[in-house]
Amino acid sequence: MTHDLILQISKIISEFNEGIDRKIPDWESVRGSKAFREMEVEISVLTRSLADQISEKILRAIVLNGRFQQQSIDTPRKTGKYRNGLASLGNDFGVTAAAVSEICRQVADSDSVRSGRQTRFFGDTNRFCNIY
């Protein structure tokens, strides 16, 4: 890692910490399940944004690295299989495995899926029982 990259990531983390410091008083006053869920989603969005910003800086550093670029050219020639530079990083079809995992986690944790898990169907379309 270059010193410049470390400084860029340190700045991102510092800005994140400052944002969290501003939010803590609001979060400490949260009461009730709805407000807690909203806080939880806000924290998830903030941390996802942090991860995205850091990943972007690292990805740019990797892709712009001349040695990586040369390896991305040389490897297909040796194997006879073409893979673009991002595919070399596990980013096939424009999506990383981590992004796919995060999307699946968010869908599984969405309000509509959670609501569906709490509702049980008993026979006809007019009879539902909510379980809490």
Verbal overview:
Residues 121-132 have low confidence and may be disordered. The protein has a two-stranded antiparallel sheet. The chain is built from six helices and two strands; from the N terminus they run H-H-H-H-H-H-E-E. The protein has 132 residues and is mostly helical. Helices cover 72% and strands 5% of the residues. The longest helix is centred in the middle third of the chain and has 31 residues, at 33-63.
Secondary structure category: mainly alpha
Strand order of the largest sheet: 1-2
Helix content: over 70%
Which regions contain 5 or more consecutive residues with pLDDT less than 50?
A: 121-132
Quote the beta fraction: under 5%
Shape: flat
Distance between the termini: 50 Å
Can you summarize the main beta sheet? Answer: 2 strands, antiparallel
Given the structure, what is the number of helices? 6
- Quick check: average pLDDT? 75
The value of Rg in angstroms is 22 Å
> Got a strand count?
2
How do the SSEs run, as a string of H and E?
HHHHHHEE
Number of domains: 2
Key traits:
disordered C terminus; two-stranded antiparallel ribbon; mainly alpha; 5% strand; 132 residues; 72% helix
Question: What topology emerges from the helices and strands here?
Answer:
Blueprint: H1 3-28, H2 33-63, H3 66-79, H4 85-88, H5 97-108, H6 111-118, E1 119-121, E2 128-130
Antiparallel strand pairs: 1-2
